[in-house]
Amino acid sequence: MPELTVETDAGALVRRSVLPGGIRVLTEAMPGQRSVTVGAWVAVGSRDETDGHHGSTHFLEHLLFKGTPSRDAMAIASAFDAVGGEANAATGKEHTCYFARVLDADLPMAGEVILDMVTSATLDPEEFDAEREVILEEIAMNEDDPGDVAHERFATQVFGSHALGRPIGGTPETIRAVPRDAVYEHYRRTYRPSELVVTAAGNVDHDALCAQVLDGVRTGGWPLDAQAAPAPRRQVVDSTAGAGFATGPSTRVLHRTTEQANVLLGGLGLPAGDDRRFVLAVLNAILGGSMSSRLFQEIREKRGLAYAVFSFSSGFADAGMFGLYAGCAPNKVEQVLELLADQWLLLATNPVEIDELQRGIGQVCGQLVLGLEDTGSRMSRLGRTEISTGELLTVTETLDRVRAVTPEQIRDLAAELHAQPRHLTVVGPFTEHAADGAARFEKGVPHA
Fold first, then answer.
1. What digits encode the pLDDT tens for the residues 104-141?
2. Cα(229)–Cα(344) distance, integer angstroms
3. How does pLDDT run across 10-21, given as a tens digit for each residue?
4. CATH no. for residue 318?
């Protein structure tokens, strides 16, 4: 059982073991905690779906809570409710996670139930049809939120025909069309030992959890080849080499009967493993990550043009996304877009002052440390790191990299992002024919 042990901060200890079948188990023992968060991850997300299976990954997230041969949906829910625990799941573009937060004494129960769900879901046909309707309602709910619509359409513009541009939950058309057999095939093809990563943080015994994982997987009937290696991480490819990403700028205007316009401007960002991700974190803090950021000060504080305004980024194995958002009155869209574009260009052409740099660094460092105060965030950090890069940095190492960011690095990265084809998404009370007008909204940005 190959193992890695790393002593992290404040006496916490991270251990990683590779079990038969290529299963990986990572734990972070946190002194003084009375709770544990445990998660079962598979490195399978919406981007891994093939034709005829679109929406299957998110469908499985729902269906795994519907029952196994040994417990039905009520038994799964009651197991966690009876101990005051919380259980949930999340589907991403590159992974799916089933997790629970419980008292340390209840970890054996939580681990048993989650492993039973992951290895032995029945995907009952009647439950399948009922859950299809639930997912359609979830999609409808998201479509009623103009902010969600704007972000979803923006991702589609940025990533083009690439699988990263597909909605995680599928579309009403794909959910209505996908048959139970296709989802079951997707489950059997992608949920296997070499893809399984189990992480836990809190008052957890690593050896005991490893033994429980092996027992749970064997009970579920998964084959465990002692010589099997973990599934390799995704291959990082050049995101500009014709992989389906959008190659030119675009503008999209979507009509919604709203009192406010939702505006998104941006393009491709950095992959999750890029060494400059620490520079991007500070850049984001300075541009639109706080109340003292440039976007907040210029658009909200000085001019009162928006309540919500910020910048954001997300990273995947071979690409990322970077954008600026504002919610404003429909008749203020042109002015707001000019300010968004101007502030981005200013950051791309002039190094930031030292005091602004230090404020941005301080914000990133503080949020990092505060964000890791609970067992759930620590569990998630272990899982995401193992699946994406495998580079598990201590908090101190991460803080050192953030503190090493320079004004020139921020300017150069902002300029690189600014040079990418830019995409504009506007959702609000406009007609679809407003695209020509929207092209005039943004100062100095070419449009296709």
1. 999 999 999 999 999 999 999 999 999 999 999 999 99
2. 45
3. 667 899 999 999
4. 3.30.830.10
28 in Cβ contact with 395 (< 8 Å): no
DSSP character string of 72-136:
EHHHHHHHHHTTT-EEEEEE-SS-EEEEEEEEGGGHHHHHHHHHHHHHH----HHHHHHHHHHHH
pLDDT of residue 31: 86
Tell me, yes or no, if 61 is annotated catalytic: yes
* Residues 404 and 328 reside in one and the same domain: yes
241 lies in a domain?
A: no
Q: Which of 28, 49, 61, 94 is catalytic?
A: 61
Nearest to 344 by CA among 419, 251, 418, 270: 418
| pLDDT tens column, 362-408 | 999 999 999 888 999 999 999 999 999 888 888 899 999 999 999 99
For residue 306, the cross-strand partners are 328
Helix (H, G, I), strand (E, B) or coil at 318: coil
* Cα–Cα distance, 379 to 382 (Å, whole number): 5
pTM of structure: 0.91
- Which are the contacts of 350, defined by CB distance < 8 A and separation ≥ 6? 411
Residues present in the chain in total:
448
Distances (CA, A) of 59 to 88, 157, 197: 14, 24, 20
* pLDDT given for residue 394 in this prediction: 87
Per the DSSP assignment, residues forming a β-bridge with 315 are: 320
- Residue 216: its H or E element: helix 206-219
Segment (H or E) for 15: strand 13-18
- What pairing do the DSSP bridges indicate for beta strands 423-428 and 250-255? parallel
Cβ–Cβ under 8 Å, residues 399 and 365: yes
Residue 227 belongs to some domain of the structure: no
User: Do 188 and 327 belong to one domain?
Assistant: no
Beta strands (DSSP E) in 243-395 are: 250-255, 261-268, 306-315, 320-328
Sheet strands (E) in 156-241: 196-202
Which tens digits make up the pLDDT trace of 309-318? 999 999 999 9
**Both tokens of residue 295?**
């976007």
Residue type for 71, please?
R
Token pair of 215 as six digits? 């027992």
Task: Verify that 204 and 290 share a domain, yes or no.
Answer: no
Q: What does the alpha-carbon distance between residue 369 and residue 10 come to, in Å, rounded to a whole number?
A: 12
Q: Examine residue 244 and state whether it is found in any structural domain, yes or no.
A: no
pLDDT single digits (tens) 50-76? 888 889 999 999 999 999 999 999 999
- The C-alpha R_g of the chain, in whole angstroms, comes to 23
Domain count, the chain: 2
Q: What is the pLDDT of residue 443?
A: 41
The one-letter amino acid at 334: E
